[in-house]
Amino acid sequence: MKKSKSFLSLALTSMLAAVVIAGCGTGNQTATGQAPAPSAGDKKTLVMATSADYKPYEYHDLSSGKDEIVGFDIDIAKYIAKELGYELQINDMNFDGLIPALQTKRADFVMAGMTATPERAKNADFSTIYYDAKNTIVAKKDSNLTKPEQLAGKKVAVQLGSIQEGAAKELAKTVSGLQITSLNKLPEIVEEVKAGRVDAAIIEDTVAKGFVESNDSLQFTTLEENEQNGSAVAFPKGSPHVEKFNEVIKKMQDNGEMDKLIQKWFGQ
């Protein structure tokens, strides 16, 4: 009887151990001990931060009856994520909060028509340039504001934290009396110009084109600049994603995909 109890005790102990071991597993292993190939539901997620008020780069589209963020940057980001085997999550925020979002690890990367300035490069790493653009003066058609020197003594609106804000500050060093008004959203900036509360705005050419086409009272004039204002992807310092993103961007430029998207969103 004692021997039977010992055998029974041993059997129960072995069964309990097997249950405990099984419960400690990852749940991702096959019967052979090999991890199964990842399925679509196992994809990791890349978090993209943007400021979705920058048509045609990124903006809210309500035409389908639901609020969807679409645009040039969005299409590029989706293509890159798919190539690298990631799902994509897009978070919309104010432009001046994008770099801080990278610094606090609330985003894996930023795409927002952003230029890799030396100042930004102190706090973020950047991809290669994927699209180059120029700045413009946006003003009323009857304003006769088409040249930088004509902005003397005028109020000029720019987006807070943007490359255009930096350009306006540089202009203010040589253009007497130029007053800068920095605002969060581009539609708000355009409304300020239309209402006459500011005399003009400095906006990127591809974005300015869209606003002017939908507002007959406005015009834009391209500024001649020596520096390149190309858009690049921003990452947290030391991000492991930079090299892989660069590889896909080059692939898109080589296989014609980037040209297709440029034509789709900018018509050029």
Automatic annotation (TrEMBL):
Domain Solute-binding protein family 3/N-terminal: 45-267
Record protein name field: ABC transporter substrate-binding protein
Family as reported in the entry's similarity comment: Belongs to the bacterial solute-binding protein 3 family.
Annotated signal peptide: 1-22
The organism's place on the tree of life at top rank: Bacteria
SUPFAM superfamilies from the UniProt entry: Periplasmic binding protein-like II
Main subcellular location: other
Domain Ionotropic glutamate receptor C-terminal: start-end pairs: 45-268
GO molecular function, one term: ligand-gated monoatomic ion channel activity
Keyword annotations: Signal
Pfam families the UniProt entry points to: SBP_bac_3 (PF00497)
InterPro entries, per the entry: Iontro_rcpt_C, SBP_3_CS, Solute-binding_3/MltF_N
Subcellular location field: Cell envelope
A GO cellular component annotation in the UniProt record: cell envelope
